[in-house]
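TEACHING EXERCISE
Course module: macromolecular assemblies
Task: Read the component lines below, then compare them to the predicted structure of the full complex.
Student: A.B.
Group: 4
Components provided:
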Amino acid sequence: MITTKLNRIDELFSRLRKGNKKALMPYLMAGYPDVETSLKLLLAVAEAGADLVEFGIPYSDPLADGPTIQKAADSALKNNINTNIVFDLVKRARAKTEIPIVVMTYYNTIYRYGLEKFAKNAAEVGVDGVIAPDLPPEEAGPWREAAQKYGVATVMLAAPTSTDERLKKVSEASQGFVYCVSLTGVTGARTNLPTNLTDFINRVRKATGKPLAVGFGISRPEQAKQVSEMADGVIIGSALVSLIAKAEDNCTEAAKEYISEVKSAMDS
Amino acid sequence: MQTKLPDERGHFGEFGGKFVPETLMTALEELEEAYIKYKDDEDFNAELAFYQKEYIGRPTLLYFAERLTRHYGRAKIYLKREDLCHGGAHKINNTIGQALLAKRMDKKRIIAETGAGQHGVASATAAALFGFECRVYMGEEDTKRQSLNVFRMNLLGTEVVPVTSGTKTLKDAMNEAIRDWVTNVETTYYMIGSVAGPHPYPVMVRDFQSVIGFETKAQIRELEGRDPDTIIACVGGGSNAMGIFYPFIGTGTRLIGVEPAGLGLETGQHGAPLTRGHKGVLHGSLSYLLQDEFGQILPAHSISAGLDYPGVGPEHSYLKDNNLAKYDSVTDGEALAAFQLLCRTEGILPALESAHAVAYLEKLMPELSKDDIAVVNLSGRGDKDVQVAADALGVRL
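Instructor-supplied answer key:
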């Protein structure tokens, strides 16, 4: 390991743990609704109280995503976004904020870019971690090696369908935090939280002492509050993306308002 | 020599693997366990053999195409008549096998993706035969090109869901099927139609399709007393090709996979990842793909909906990189000409997919002598393609 400085993600969770607080972790799609606005949105949610931002590199075939993120990815790609532009946006964000930034994308965008080059460029612009939902620990070896070399964390996902044995394997391989997929399904807002969520989170807790962030299906402030009572972080994706779609020109303000509302619900 | 691959992690050299969301990993492990348990199981194989013979109509004929042979005046040409399988294509070899497995795994619901509709029809057929609930995802574009097959699936009691995302073709149908599986994984069996997808699908589908190759080997030895010099098969995802190639890998028989060059490789409007693609990950495995420099998948094009796919089964990538098979391509126009040629010389209407393999004879025959033997895998019949062919030939029906 070359890096000696504590990763921003680890720093965040150890700080929050001490203050008995939970992380609000919104997801934004780079290039959506347009390239410049996606940067403004990143800075806006950071200012409004987000603790970590997941910044999505759009992919043409997002098979773990529901309609909301699929549509956003389609329009982002039509806006001619690409991995280099996303890195440039992160670089510009880094000039203004120290919020942990985790890039979320599918493995092919990483693989095709070149594992070493992706890790190196990500680290250089200030990306703290990478989440690739279609990269299970069994296949993650070559990427982890490259990422580790440059001090980029690789976040793994745990699912309710994972056996206890797999939960161990996944959380051992995960760095920064473990991304707990709340439900058996694709991304997208749901009316209710899954009934077996507590059991699932308890199972992951048994497998690891690492911070747990829960995502998929969370949209309303009271749901975020509920989730924050059992986990260390709350991930909100589709709900924020569809709010941005609806608010159009007013989206940075709307996103700010929504994030601070969710944040205060979590802190109450 | 048959390959000992994949390894226990589902890798064919650097290709293959299991690149899927964690939600599906346990299901894939269960599937693999079930497959390993049953593939050498006596009862399972007896039941499979029963349905192969009594229902699919196997063994299919290895037919000496005398007039086609005379047309070229070179090698003897044999056609492996998978078009005579029940349902009209080789796809049913796989769906009956997987349905027998799904039955043993106590699944009640089957989902599948389809391009031309042949795998969809074969899945719907197996579902009807064994009493499964069945849903097939099909690109909206393909439901229009292949409306006959949509109706056939409906008649067989299957719900066909038109997929409107992305390019509205096979790749998007597969995305949507995977999304369904991610959501309903506990009750649902995903019946993948090609040697693609995450491990264990590429090896399992190959094994179910390898009956084509084993029959061919026995039949040609019976007829000619030796193995063929060349075997030709079309490659979309590559299941009919893997099926006929498998027993001949590394034996000295030249294996040629024919990809769709669409409007021409230089136009970019094709479906030839092995010829013009780059390595990448799509639908759960690492293989050659049509993609841009940032890894965004590019739309494929082919006159044949069944070959209209930007990826290819990982074992084909392995065979290519290790020079165990050769891959080339023919255009829409060449395939259409072969489609007509086979009708006129042999009275056989091939699927447009299979017509790609037939079309390759045009390139290959000048290299061969009268003592040579070539086998073409005629993977399906062309009734479904009559409308598409008429449109392409400017005939109004």
